[in-house]
């Protein structure tokens, strides 16, 4: 077991390094750097001025070396200009160049400064990830129980009317991506012109103009059911269908096993059989699916945060990408990549723990 | 249906149409689709016993519903020019976001006097844009999925069959791409800046070469004992393939038949790139299962080449799960394309494809929902149809 985990960790580390290099390479392409120079320096710079600006700010040279610099595995650039002022990656504005450390990269905790938010990348990342954490937590609390209940109910009697209704529901939700369900939910529940809200307002059931709020910006400070309900429902809906279908498949398979029939023949009630005998064995496959659902959740988070204007990780990623904020985008990518890799690792290890039939050599 | 025509009186009574009249007029507008659907279904039911797996579809109600929805959109895409009521790019008058059933100002060129499903913020007809968007989506999504499948199969077969170092290397690459959050990849790959670096063209050059290699190997491995046939088939593959290749990957087709807008190429390549590793993993898994069967051992004993066994013994027996996944994946690709449109990546703003129309409509979503809701429902119904079709296919193929 330990050897397996260590080997997986090793592969994960290599994967993380390769992927961050790819991101570094793609965000530091010459056209992006040129755009950065023009936005930080001046728009009307000549090509020669752009080249010298890039050289002055440590953006020239081999991409491998710059990647190592960014990681903190190679010494940061230091430039002394003709006035005798020494500047460098690791030298702050008021710092003494002689006292500055040689290495300063991600390993040393220096993730750079965001050009859009004018804060350090780590600070912005922390803040936005906290916001997204609440969103993800709420989604998980809604999505997982609902999906499991639907899947178990549908799978315990395959082909029954309950099964057909619930299966149709889960197929429909898994055909509804977040940007579709979000739009439909807002039109139905959060529009003063259409859907339920005008009716409810007319009957005097709600004091405000709309039932739910169409934006989640206010949830940044104070989460309520009315401002958080729609974003959470939008993300959860898409995931529910998939997890429920996997649970149903796993449940129907378990229900045809010999030991279930034996238990029934012994005279155990149907409810008891489902709860005591079938449920635990039917939960192995959905566990993996739920863990592997996290990366897709990230997709949903980006779409929903953009749609509902909730300033979390996804919103920040979109803003950084849209404004050529290279260091911010790099930081966000590192977090996203590590997040995906860790969920994959947990899913693998958890699968082995849950399923005694798998033995690792 | 004649009472629903604009000339017949009652609909003219007021300026705006009721919802019943809107649906009636839309149903009438879709007449080529209804005719085509009826013909398809009558012929399919008539000959269903002779049509193999396709005929078996018509034994499952779920598959019939899914197939009907999918074919509805396919025929809509085919007959889009006859169905749409206005030019999807034309701005009709100066009123923003006219409601469904509103009267079109005088002088607009089109088949109708009304905005059937309203207009968007530039007073373009939402109904016509939805119809035209179907054509865009139904060209790109199946094409990109097919390419992803050809790439995934060509790499997955040897990875599963030969195994060893090749498998380790290819699997590591596939897992690399899979560990990338899709949306991040899109934001990095589908930007105007990246086009000037030529990376999409390089990617396209590599990815598009694989299908040609696939067909060339396919014919070579089957007919290498009869060189005349082999030469003919491989020559046809190479001529057609390289001709399309020059146009699609480099936009340098000497005859100008094949070509792809650089924006579109970028989107296409990214979508293939995202989908291919998953197909690779599925194919690899199936091959590892099938390669221990007796007929594979028989082929090896006969002295068949490795590629012959992979392409002509294993692949046909893996078709069941692959066809099911193909249907699901077209749906998933449609969702991915919508996501790209939703973030305004890679497509021109006036493009009528569903994703970018939803994106354009969401800004005023809570006041005038119809410009965003109409393409949203269209996209959802297409993906739902594909999922139902895949479910029905899975059921039917398990019955054998």
What does this structure look like?
Chain A is mostly helical and 361 residues long. Chain A has 14 helices and 2 strands. Chain A has helices at residues 2-27, 30-40, 47-56, 63-71, 121-156, 161-174, 178-189, 196-203, 225-255, 258-266, 270-282, 284-308, 313-322, 326-354, and strands at 78-80, 86-88. Chain A has a two-stranded antiparallel ribbon. The longest helix of chain A has 36 residues, at 121-156. Chain B has 17 helices and no strands. In chain B, helix 6 packs parallel to helix 17 (370-399), helix 7 crosses helix 12 (262-290) and helix 15 runs antiparallel to helix 17 (370-399). Chain B is globular and about 80 Å long.
Defining key terms:
heterodimer; A: 361 residues; mainly alpha; two-stranded antiparallel sheet; B: 400 residues; 70% helix; globular; disordered N terminus
* Class from helix and strand fractions of chain B: mainly alpha
Biggest protein-protein contact in the assembly: A-B, 52 and 46 residues
Low-confidence stretches of chain A: none
Low-confidence stretches of chain B: 1-13
Specify the overall morphology of chain B: globular
- What pattern of helices and strands is seen along the backbone of chain A? HHHHEEHHHHHHHHHH
In what order do the strands lie side by side in the largest sheet of chain A? 1-2
Please state the average pLDDT score of chain A: 83
Q: Would you tell me the structural class of the helices and strands of chain A?
A: mainly alpha
Largest sheet of chain B: none
Topology, number of strands of chain A = 2
Note the quaternary state here.
Answer: heterodimer
For the terminal residues of chain B, how far apart are their CA atoms?
Answer: 45 Å
Task: Kindly report the average pLDDT value of chain B.
Answer: 85
């Amino acid at each position: 077991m330990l050897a397996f985990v260590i080997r997986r960790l090793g592969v994960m580390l290599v994967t993380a390094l390769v992927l961050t290099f790819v991101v570094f390479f793609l965000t530091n392409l010459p056209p992006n750097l040129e755009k950065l120079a023009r936005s930080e320096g001046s728009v009307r710079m000549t090509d020669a001025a752009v080249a010298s600006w890039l050289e002055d700010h440590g953006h020239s040279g081999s991409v491998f070396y710059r990647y190592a610099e960014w990681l903190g595995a190679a010494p940061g650039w230091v430039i002394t200009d003709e006035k005798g002022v020494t500047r460098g990656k690791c030298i702050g504005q008021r710092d003494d160049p002689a006292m500055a450390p040689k290495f300063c990269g991600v390993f040393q905790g220096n993730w750079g400064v965001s050009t859009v938010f004018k804060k350090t990348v780590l600070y912005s990342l922390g803040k936005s990830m906290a916001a997204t954490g609440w969103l993800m937590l709420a989604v998980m609390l809604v999505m997982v129980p609902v999906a499991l209940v639907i899947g178990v109910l549908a799978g315990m009697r395959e082909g029954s009317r309950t099964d057909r209704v619930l299966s149709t529901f889960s197929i429909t939700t898994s055909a509804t991506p977040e940007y579709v369900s979000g739009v439909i939910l807002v039109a139905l529940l959060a529009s003063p012109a259409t859907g339920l809200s005008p009716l409810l307002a007319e009957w005097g059931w709600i004091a405000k103009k709309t039932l739910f709020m169409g934006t989640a910006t206010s949830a940044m400070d104070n989460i309520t059911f009315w401002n958080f309900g729609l974003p959470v429902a939008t993300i959860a809906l898409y995931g529910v269908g998939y997890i429920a279908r996997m649970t149903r498949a796993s449940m129907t398979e378990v229900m045809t096993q010999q030991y279930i029939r034996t238990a029934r023949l012994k005279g155990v009630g149907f409810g008891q059989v489902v709860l005591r005998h079938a449920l635990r064995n039917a939960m192995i496959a959905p566990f993996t699916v739920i863990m592997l659902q996290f990366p897709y959740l990230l997709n949903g988070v980006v779409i929903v945060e953009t749609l509902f204007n909730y300033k979390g990780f996804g919103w920040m990623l979109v803003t950084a990408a849209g404004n050529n904020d290279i260091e911010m985008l790099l930081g966000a990518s590192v977090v996203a990549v590590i997040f995906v890799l860790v969920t994959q690792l947990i899913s693998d290890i958890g699968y082995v723990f849950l399923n005694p039939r798998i033995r690792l050599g | 249906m004649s009472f629903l025509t604009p000339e017949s009186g009652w609909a003219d009574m007021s300026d705006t149409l009721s919802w019943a009249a809107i649906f009636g007029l839309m149903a009438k507008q879709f007449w080529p689709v209804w005719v085509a659907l009826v013909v398809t279904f009558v012929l399919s039911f008539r000959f269903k016993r002779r049509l193999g797996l396709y005929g078996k579809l018509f034994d499952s109600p779920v598959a019939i519903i899914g197939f009907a929805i999918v074919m509805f959109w396919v025929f809509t895409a085919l007959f889009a020019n006859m169905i749409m009521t206005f030019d999807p790019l034309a701005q009709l008058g100066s009123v923003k976001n006219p409601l469904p059933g509103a009267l079109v100002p005088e002088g607009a060129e089109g088949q109708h006097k009304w905005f059937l499903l309203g207009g968007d913020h530039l007073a373009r007809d939402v109904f016509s844009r939805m119809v035209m968007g179907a054509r865009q989506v139904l060209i790109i999504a199946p094409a990109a999925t097919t390419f992803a499948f050809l790439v995934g199969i060509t790499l997955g077969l040897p990875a599963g069959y030969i195994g060893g170092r090749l498998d380790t290397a290819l699997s590591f690459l596939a897992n690399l791409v899979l560990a990338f959050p899709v949306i991040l990849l899109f934001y990095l790959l589908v930007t105007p800046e990246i086009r000037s670096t030529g990376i999409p063209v390089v990617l396209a050059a590599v990815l598009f070469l694989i299908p040609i290699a696939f067909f060339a190997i396919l014919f070579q491995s089957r007919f290498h004992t009869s060189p005349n046939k082999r030469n003919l088939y491989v020559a046809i593959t190479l001529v057609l393939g390289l001709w399309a290749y020059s146009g699609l990957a480099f936009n340098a087709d000497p005859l100008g038949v094949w070509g792809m807008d650089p924006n579109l190429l970028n989107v296409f390549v990214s979508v293939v790139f995202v989908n291919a590793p998953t197909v690779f993993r599925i194919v690899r898994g199936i091959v590892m299962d099938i390669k221990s069967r007796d007929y594979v051992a028989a082929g090896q004993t006969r002295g068949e080449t490795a590629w012959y066994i992979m392409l002509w013994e294993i692949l046909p027996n893996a078709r069941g799960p692959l066809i099911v996944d193909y249907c699901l994946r077209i749906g998933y690709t449609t969702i991915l394309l919508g996501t790209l449109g939703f973030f305004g990546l890679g497509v021109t703003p006036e493009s009528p494809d569903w994703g970018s129309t939803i994106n354009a409509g969401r800004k005023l979503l809570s006041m005038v929902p119809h410009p965003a809701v109409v393409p949203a429902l269209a996209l959802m119904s297409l993906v739902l149809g594909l999922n139902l079709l895949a479910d029905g296919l899975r059921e039917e193929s398990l019955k054998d």
